[in-house]
Amino acid sequence: MKKSLVLATLFAAVALAACSKTEAPAPIVVPAPAPATTVVVPAPAPDAGAAAAAGAANNAAASANSAAGSAAMSAGAANNAAGSAAMSASDAASAAKK
C-alpha cells in the first residue's frame, strides 16, 4: 500500500511539473539617466583654529597607537608566560608519573 501511494504521489508531481507553463520574464526597461548638474562651491579660507585642532587630533591618534602597541606587547608577554607555565606544569606532571 505504501509503495503504491508513493508511486501515485510521484506520478502526480511529475504530471503537474510537466504541465506547468513557463513564462518569459517581461523585459526590464531602464530609463536614461538624467544629466548631472555640477555645482562649484568655493573652499573656505584656512582657519588657524582648525589647524591646531587637526594637530591635536593627530597627536591624540599617535598616543592611542602607542598605547595599543604597548598593550599588544604586554599581551604577548603574558601569553609567553602562560605558555611557559603550562609547559612547566606538563613537565612536572610527566615527572610525577615516572
- Count of individual helical segments: 2
Share in helix? 55-70%
The residue ranges in which pLDDT falls below 50 over 5 or more consecutive positions are none
Q: What gross morphology would you assign?
A: flat
Distance between the termini: 69 Å
- Quickly give the structural class: mainly alpha
The counted number of beta strands is 0
Main sheet makeup? none
Secondary-structure element sequence? HH
Radius of gyration: 37 Å
Overall average residue pLDDT: 76
Describe what you observe in this structure.
- The structure is a single chain.
- The protein is 69% helix and 0% strand.
- It is mainly α.
- It has a domain at 54-98.
- The chain is flat and about 75 Å long.
- The two termini are 69 Å apart.
Quick summary:
This protein has a domain at 54-98. 69% of the residues lie in helices and 0% in strands.
Q: What structural keywords apply?
A:
98 residues, mainly alpha, 2 helices, 0% strand
